[in-house]
Structures are given as structure tokens and as C-alpha cells.
Amino acid sequence: MFGYSAAVAMPNPSTTSDRNASKKGPRGTGHAIHLPVLTGPHNASGQGVAEGAERLRRRRRLRLFVLLGVHVLIAVHLTHWLVTGESIGRFVLSDAMEALELGRIGPGALLFAAAMSVTLVAGRWLCGWACHMGALQDGCAWVLRRLGLRPRPFRTHVLGYVPLITAFLMFAWPTLRRVVFAPLADHLPFVVPSWLASHAPAPAWQWQLTSEHLWRGLPSAAVAIPFLLVCGGATVFFLGTRGFCRYGCPYGGAFSAAEPIAPMRVTVDLAICDGCGRCTAACNSGVTVHEEVRAHGRVISSGCQRSLDCIAVCPHQALRLGVAKPAWMADGAILDHHRFDTSLGEEILLGSAFLVAFLASRGLYGIIPLFFALGIAICVTSLAWHLWRTARTGVGSLCGMALRKGGQWTLAGSVSIVAGGILGGIVLHSFGIQACLWHAGRLDDRIVAPRSAAFSSLPSILGPADEKVAQEALDWYLTAGSLGKGGWGLAGTPAADVRVGWLRLLLRDYRGAADALCAAIPWAEDPDRLVADLARVLLLADDPDGAVQALEAFIGTGGECEECRRLLRAMSANTRERVAP
Question: Are residues 229 and 150 in the same domain?
């Protein structure tokens, strides 16, 4: 959008070569793609090149204004909601999951359906012209180039499946699990895990086009700002322009699955195309346009986001947008346009590193959402590969900076090693914390106790075996807790605090249960139930004054909870009864 992409090396006008001069370097070298530049009767004139560059500037300026307009609409939408308290529902594509699972059809689900329909016919226009994350990545790439840094696409095969897999898990798996696996599980002779066979009923469709809770479920500014820095900036630095689109975005994964069906494609007139490669250099999606049109007569890559920069920059105007055979009907083998930087063994290591980094990040301390975890994982994986490759071969670069020269690590290389060591330590530590929570959850699931018994005055409600399992689960939860509470975590996990409170209640440690619930309430999205449970626990601990204070404090801050008010009325009448849940 803001200048030439650094996806490839720009042609040198003084170089002479033939039509097939674009050579693929040895697999795994990580070198840039060298583009051919022709001389002779078919070579573009200086005027043609200048006109193409001017058309490209105008095209990118138009796209910049369109994307700015998208951000203006977002600002107007938020302002209207803040002023009136209610507005049109969110245009968040992930709300399509809510429609599939709960039947709530809002603007986000309608936008997703419209975008998929357009993609099936005309390709990924939403990604190129209306995505705020795409605009952020283009802007960050422009800033990096202004600073003298040249982000180059990191080309790997295994990470390319990440958007597709996450899109499947978000938009297809819930329905597939309910419709196929849940009925099948009822006829199997063994118990199927709940994550594989959910028995949730089919949704009852209902419209929800307006909302009073526009920001519910979205991250706070403390999370959103680092998310934008990582997914909008760091991914460009480590993976090249539109790196998050190619290796992290689930929406892009859904659209890339539909894109091969689209008949509207970038096509070529081979009679006037000289294969100069300027189209590839201009593409901000990392597509080797000049090779694809030469091999297939059209662009077939599912990564094409229809920015149309390739059409604008062509000095002969040999490219155009038109109707052609869809990509899935491409003659012969689909071109290996990615020119992967990695070998098969490295792909396996990259996949393993990504999986560890993602599992370590996803939901960490109840803070890191899915998209943020994807951005962190792909950046960590890319950095690890660059350092490993540089150490093994003795040469390497990152965003145009040499990491090693003459057998010696450069300043950029030394900084990268330190950063890689710190990030690696954090990832491994976080993975250990997540493993503790996972194991604690497995043990916790084995404890079944009704609420009525848990909040009764019985001195014990668990048998010896269950009590042992509950204590073991509690120990693992505490191990994953914050350092200030005797654990190994850098912070606490609110969901784990709730489970700690429940287990302590079952073990009849009322004061410990109350402390755990107090720690979880400030972070809970819907704290009403927790506040009521806290009051009951305090009553069991013979602290009615504390129970009254907790209820009054919550109601005094605007909390709306009929159960809390019922408890408060009962205690204010000096009954001091333990009200059954």
C-alpha cells in the first residue's frame, strides 16, 4: 500500500537475462527470489515502467483511502454505542461461531456470510480492501522500510496450514461435532471425551442485530494494544508483509479454502508479457505472480488478496482482472509458488515449535486470546528458525539485517540471540504452567459433588479416595498459581482460582475457599454467581458480617444480582441463616 513490497528483489535495469532467468535457489537457502529483467524488443521501455509505477501509487493510494474509511466507520460505530448505550451489533467475523453454536444471527455473522459469498465468486476482496488488520500490517511494513529494514517473506509449508486448521475448528467443528460425532458417540461401547462429542442441542435461530454490550468478549486495552503490536508489527518483522494473514488469521484460512472456486482471477496476455517480474515485486501477499501467470495463464494462489497491485504496475498492461478457470481446475500440478525456505526435517521442527508456543500462549493466565496466541507462536517459531539456520550455516539475515558475518555474530545477531533466549524461556515456563493446569483439570473433572451438599453444614462430603484426588488437583492448581501465592506462575489464572475455591470448599477449608473466590471475582465476566457463592462460604465460615459486606459492596457498585439481593435481605433480617443454593 505504501511502497514496493520486499517480498522479492526488485529488478536491476542494467541486468540482461532471458525469459527463464527466474531460478529457484537450493531448497532451504532462504535467499530472495531473483526476478528476470529483459532487454530487446520485448523489454519494457522506461516510460512504460514509469507509467506502471505511477498507476501503482494511485492504486495504493485508493486502497489507503478505502481502508481509512473502514476505520472511520469503526470509530463512528463505537462512538454511537458509547453515546447512546446501544447500537448496531458488532461486525466481528468470529460472531459467526456464536450463530452456529447458539443460533444468534448478528451483523458479524451476516458479514462473514457475505464475505464468503463474495470470495466464492470473486476471490478474497475483503482481505485486500476492507481488513483493518491487513491495513495495520501494510502500515507497519511501510514504517519498517522507512527505518531501512526490509521485511522478507518467511516461506514455510507447515505454518501455511495454521489458518486453515484454526478456521475449521472455529467455524466447522462445532456443527460437525454436534451433528455427526455426538449421535455416533451414543452407540459406542466406550466413553467418548466431551470435547469430541458434545450433546448441545441444535440452535434455535434468532436475530440479534443490535447490542448494548458491544465490547463483551473482546480484550481490554491492556491486551488489545500488545496484540496489535505483535500481530500487526512483529509478524511483519519476522514473517514479511501480511505475515499474519498468511500464517495466523483464521478468517484468511476460511477464505483461502473458498478462493480456489472463484472464477474471477488475475489473468495474463502472454503475447505481450515479458516476464519482468514487477508484478511479483509489487504483490504484498507474497505471490510469485509472474511464474503463476506464465505456467497457468492466471494467478491460482489462494493467498491472492485481490489488491490488484500486480495489474497496476505491469509496464505492458498484460495483466487484467477477468473470468477464467477456477484455481482448482488448473492444468497439471499446482505451481510450487512459495519457494519454501525450509527442508522437510525443518518443517517438522517448525510445526513442533509452533505447537508448543501456541499451547503455552493460548489462554495463558486467562489473558491471551486465540488470535494473540497465534501471532506469538508464529513469531517465536520464525525467530527460532532464523537463529537455528544462521548458527548451522554461518550466514543469515532477519528483516534485511545480517545476523552473522565472517563467522562472527553481528550486533543484530547478538540481540536476536538474547531475545530468542528470553522468549524461549518464557515459552517453556508458560508451557509448564499450562501443563499443570491441564493436569489439575483432568483430576478436577473426576470429582462430582452437588452444590447443595457442598454448601451444607456437613463436616465432610467426599470419600477418602475422592478427597485424595481433590487434594492432588488442588496442589497442581496451586503450583500453577502466582509466585506471591507460593506457585510458579508469573500471575494468577482467574478460572483456576474459581476451581481452587470449589475444591477448598469440598475439603471444608472455608477461609481458603473465600480467599480464592475473592481473587477470581474482579476478573470474572459475570461475577454475580461468584459473589453469591462467596457470601455462602463466609456464612459457613461463621463470618456473617463479611458476607453482608461482600454483598453490599457488589450491589453498591451497580451489580445486578437477584440472588445476591435475596441473600442480603435474609441476613439483614437477622436470620443469619445459611441459605441453600
Answer: yes
| Per-residue model confidence (pLDDT) at position 41 | 43
Q: What is the pTM of this model?
A: 0.85
CA gap 195, 207 in Å, rounded: 28
Shared-domain flag, residues 429 and 535:
no
Section 106-133 average pLDDT: 93
Quote the crossing angle between the two packed helices 344-361 and 411-444, to the nearest 10°. 60
The conformation of residue 400, written as its DSSP 8-state character, comes to T
Dihedral angle over CA of 503, 506, 512, 517, nearest 10 = 60
Asked if residue 205 and residue 286 are part of one domain, the reply reads yes
Same domain, yes or no: 424 and 565:
no
What is the amino acid identity at position 177?
R
Contact 536, 578 (CB under 8 A): yes
- Which residues is 207 bridged to in the sheet? 105
**Average pLDDT of 543-565?**
78
Q: Verify that 10 and 92 share a domain, yes or no.
A: yes
Q: Count of domains in the chain?
A: 3
Please tell me whether residues 331 and 468 are part of one structural domain: no
Cα angle: 51, vertex 56, 61; to 5 degrees? 130
Cell numbers for 545: 458480617
Bin 508: left if φ > 0, else alpha if -120 < ψ < 50, else beta: left
At 338-364, the pLDDT tens digits run 467 888 888 999 999 999 999 999 999
- pLDDT attached to residue 577: 46
Among candidate residues 329, 576, 313, the one with its CA nearest the CA of residue 457: 576
The Cα–Cα gap between 505 and 513 comes to 6
User: Which of 315, 341, 367 corresponds to the end of one domain?
Assistant: 341
Helix or strand or coil: residue 210? strand
SS3 482: strand
Full domain range(s) for residue 546: 451-572
> Do the bridges between strand 408-409 and strand 401-405 make them parallel or antiparallel, or are there none, so unpaired?
antiparallel
The answer to whether the beta carbons of residues 435 and 41 sit under 8 Å apart is: no
CA distances from 179 to 197, 276, 460, 471 (A): 9, 52, 42, 38
Q: What is the pLDDT of residues 236-250, one digit of tens each?
A: 999 998 999 999 999
Q: How far is residue 566's CA from residue 550's CA, in Å, rounded to a whole number?
A: 14
Q: In sequence order, what are the beta bridge partners of 264?
A: 323
In the DSSP assignment, the letter for residue 489 is B
Domain boundary among 408, 438, 468: 438
Sign (positive/negative) of CA torsion 69, 70, 71, 74?
positive
Tell me how far CA of residue 113 lies from CA of 4, 137, 522, in angstroms: 33, 24, 36
Whether the Cβ atoms of residue 421 and residue 388 lie closer than 8 Å to each other: no
- Asked whether residue 479 falls in the same domain as residue 497, the answer is yes
Name residue 266's beta-bridge partners.
Answer: 321
State phi, psi for 296 to the nearest 5 degrees.
Answer: -125, -5
CA-CA distance, 8 to 469, in Å (whole number)?
Answer: 58
Q: Does one domain contain both 190 and 103?
A: yes
Q: What are the angstrom distances between the C-alpha of 164 and each of 160, 285, 303?
A: 8, 17, 12
Side chain identity at residue 180, one-letter code: V
User: Residue 120 is placed in which grid cell?
Assistant: 466464492
